[in-house]
Amino acid sequence: METATAPAARGRPREFCTDRALAAALGVFWSKGYEGTSMADLTEAMGITKPSLYAAFGNKEALFHKALDLYEAEKLQYTRAALKQPTARAVAEHFMRGAIEAQLSSCDPRGCLGVISATACGAEAESIKADVIQRRASSQAALVERFEQAKRDGDLPSHVDVAGLTSLLYAILQGMAVQAGSGASRADLERVVETSLALWPGR
């Protein structure tokens, strides 16, 4: 666990845990979105001063990118596990059920940080949107390759448009994130998963 030295008004500098501070920042960005989060929101949640935040993490934009790294590492682990499932249908199911667990966690805000941030607007948010979109493109490329393998294995029918199927799955996942953020229940999202699997083109 890393610590950083924060400037103090008098006496010795005080140390704070950068891991805990970053986790707190992630919670704020996740609940309010990038544009909706103020520096005051961040410093209050992180328990540090603005100079300390700048010294340890850089500006708000740099802090968000670090928070997004943490989000991917801790909250999206299920997406990496999904790619290892034995069939394309199981991959899709693991993605969707993992999303439900992440989006309805009692410990975290509802919805998806990536979806919230990708819909941000304004000049300040352009680099944020670009980062989110680039990360999503990388994840989609991995999923396309997994589905191409399923097609080669005969697990998906030969006529299936793999890129289109991947885009469909992501559209479902993004829609679930929006619904979760709007108060949808677990039963509501489970119904989306079951319906989607009923329409799945493979075994």
TrEMBL record:
User: Is the Magnesium keyword given for this protein?
Assistant: no
Give the matching InterPro entries. Answer: DNA-bd_HTH_TetR-type_CS, Homeodomain-like_sf, HTH_TetR, Tet_transcr_reg_TetR-rel_C_sf, TetR_C
UniProt superkingdom: Bacteria
Keywords, ordered alphabetically: DNA-binding, Transcription, Transcription regulation
GO MF annotation list: DNA binding
| DNA-binding region range list | 38-57
Q: Which residues form the HTH tetR-type domain?
A: 15-75
PANTHER family associated with the record: HTH-TYPE TRANSCRIPTIONAL REGULATOR YJDC (PTHR47506:SF1), TRANSCRIPTIONAL REGULATORY PROTEIN (PTHR47506)
Q: What is this protein called?
A: TetR family transcriptional regulator
Originating species: Sphingomonas metalli
